[in-house]
């Protein structure tokens, strides 16, 4: 079977299963198996694919037909120009979260300390450390399997892997020290909304990283209140938020004593980040 014929078979199977972007997913899975790039389909589509690669590809197509996310099948998701390893123990990094990283980088200076609460794959903390100088950070997550993923990403992507420390903790339970920045993309989806999400999310991404309880604000309240003990005076707290949560999360920060509270929109014009400054 040729490379193009195999791609066409995979694309047709995904379309039949109702997979969004079936063309793209079929191509990316084929490139992952054959270690090729997008040009191969155009230039070398008539080359023969070895039987072992064909079987591996069709197995991935079968799994993608069951709505396992593409990134869990390839094991990789790009974020902030870096290739992060991902698996079913962590949320897949989204482009929207890059807005949070970019906003922190505007204020981050050499030698500062960062705490990333609910770190997951470590994409936020690792990106901040990768694009800054001599900063140190702590990634916190309740899931030991998520932390192992973050640790491995740090070892691969950080120039000095010891610049990041990883702590298993229920929020601040096992955290100590003071930080100039605390950042978090916490679980913020309302519990009654989760069953309505696309199968790739509700059936495969970790529920612990999705559910913000009844009103979606549970973790914002806890973090905003408890983080004050771990911020230096003048330290800043940054949250990623759902697009309808800016007013509520801003009010939570104000009630916790934060000042200079700002809302930042993403590239689609939706509210995406809320941050504020704490003066002890």
Short description:
The protein has 280 residues and is α/β, with parallel strands linked by helices. The protein is 39% helix and 20% strand. It folds into 2 domains: 3-66; 77-278, 3-Layer(aba) Sandwich (Rossmann fold), CATH 3.40.50.150.
What does this molecule look like?
The strands form 2 sheets. Strands 5-4-3-6-7-9-8 form a 7-stranded mixed beta sheet, with helices on both faces. The protein has helices at 3-16, 22-34, 38-43, 51-65, 70-74, 96-107, 123-130, 144-157, 199-202, 218-226, 246-255; strands at 76-79, 82-85, 113-117, 136-141, 164-168, 179-184, 231-240, 258-265, 271-278. The protein folds into 2 domains: 3-66; 77-278, Vaccinia Virus protein VP39 (Rossmann fold), CATH 3.40.50.150. By secondary structure, the protein is α/β, with parallel strands linked by helices. The radius of gyration is 21 Å and the shape is elongated. The longest helix has 15 residues, at 51-65.
């Amino acid at each position: 079977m040729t490379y193009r014929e195999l791609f066409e078979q995979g694309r047709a199977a995904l379309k039949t299963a109702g997979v969004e972007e079936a063309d793209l997913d079929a191509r990316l899975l084929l490139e992952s198996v054959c270690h090729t790039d997008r040009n191969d389909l155009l230039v070398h589509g008539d080359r023969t694919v070895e039987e072992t690669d064909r079987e591996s590809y069709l197995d991935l197509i079968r799994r993608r037909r069951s709505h396992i996310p593409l990134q869990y099948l390839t094991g990789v998701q790009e974020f902030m120009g870096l290739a992060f390893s991902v698996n079913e123990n962590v949320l897949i990094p989204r482009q929207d979260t890059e807005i949070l990283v970019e906003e922190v980088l505007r204020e981050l200076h050499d030698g500062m300390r960062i705490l990333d609460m609910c770190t997951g794959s470590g994409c936020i903390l690792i990106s901040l450390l990768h694009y800054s100088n001599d900063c140190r950070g702590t990634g916190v997550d309740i899931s030991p399997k998520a932390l192992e993923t973050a640790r491995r990403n740090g070892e691969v992507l950080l120039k000095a892997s010891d610049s990041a420390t990883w702590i298993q903790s229920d929020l601040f339970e096992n955290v100590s020290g003071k930080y100039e920045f605390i950042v978090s993309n916490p679980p913020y989806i309302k519990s009654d909304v989760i069953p309505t999400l696309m199968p790739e999310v509700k059936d495969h991404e970790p529920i612990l990283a999705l559910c913000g309880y009844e009103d979606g604000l549970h973790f914002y309240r806890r973090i905003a209140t408890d983080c004050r003990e771990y911020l230096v005076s003048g330290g800043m707290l940054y949250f990623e938020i759902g697009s309808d949560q800016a007013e509520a999360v801003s009010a939570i920060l104000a009630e916790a004593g934060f000042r200079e509270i700002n809302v930042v929109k993403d590239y689609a014009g939706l509210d995406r980040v809320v941050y504020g400054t704490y003066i002890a």
